[in-house]
């Protein structure tokens, strides 16, 4: 399995991946194995969620939670693999900001 081949903190990139059922679109797949500290924190958060929501994660889900997988069509020349996580983190913060604006200021009502 690929995950066992990655050391904690290591990143692996599949530069020529294709996705799509009918039209194959070229993408990059970047797989990053979390450090042991990050993995423990994620498992702790999962345990809290299990208890709070009364669910039980399958063992496979717990193993997979030790990695981050990014699928992007951004060229490697524009954003190297080691910067993809930061870019996606920033994008996620922007998503949360817009969600907050929509909720509090109802910006989705204005055009």
Automatic annotation (TrEMBL):
SUPFAM superfamilies: Ribonuclease H-like (SSF53098)
GO molecular function, one term: transposase activity
InterPro entries (UniProt xref): RNaseH-like_sf (IPR012337), Transposase_11 (IPR002559)
Domain of life the protein comes from: Bacteria
Entry protein name: Transposase DDE domain-containing protein
Transposase IS4-like domain segment(s): 14-109
Pfam families for this protein: DDE_Tnp_1
PANTHER family xref list: TRANSPOSASE INSL FOR INSERTION SEQUENCE ELEMENT IS186A-RELATED
Listed GO biological process terms: DNA transposition
